[in-house]
Amino acid sequence: GYPEAERNILDPRLEETIKEFSAIDGAFIIRGDGVILSAGRYLASQGKLDEPLPQGLGTRHEAAAAITVTTSAIALCISQSTGTISIFKRGHLITDISKPRSRASEGL
């Protein structure tokens, strides 16, 4: 495999590579210090959610939320249609981060 320095999402030189890899179906497993441990992983969790997810969030979001029930992980899920990032902890949606709109789309 690649050395850890070449797998760290905090390295700005890897931005384009990470964008390309994000098209791979499955999850990225990222260590707390930013090192990618695995990509394209299927998340199977026995975690049960206390409450249903908000309307419009699908199975990828459910898998991301469920893995945080049985682990100490925080999960991020990027919407394929809107680019919105949903962040989950302990099975709950903590926040959404919307994709910034370009100045051109705002008519400026």
Features:
single chain; alpha+beta; globular; two-stranded antiparallel sheet; 3-stranded antiparallel sheet; 5 strands; YojJ-like (1; 108 residues
Summarize this entry quickly.
This protein is of the alpha+beta class and 108 residues long.
Architecture overview:
The protein is an alpha+beta fold and 108 residues long. It has a single domain (4-106), classed as YojJ-like (1, CATH 3.40.1700.10. The chain has helices at 15-21, 59-70, and strands at residues 27-30, 36-41, 74-78, 85-89, 92-97. It is globular, with a radius of gyration of 15 Å. It starts with 14 loop residues before the first helix and ends in an 11-residue tail after the last strand. The model has no long low-confidence stretch (mean pLDDT 87).
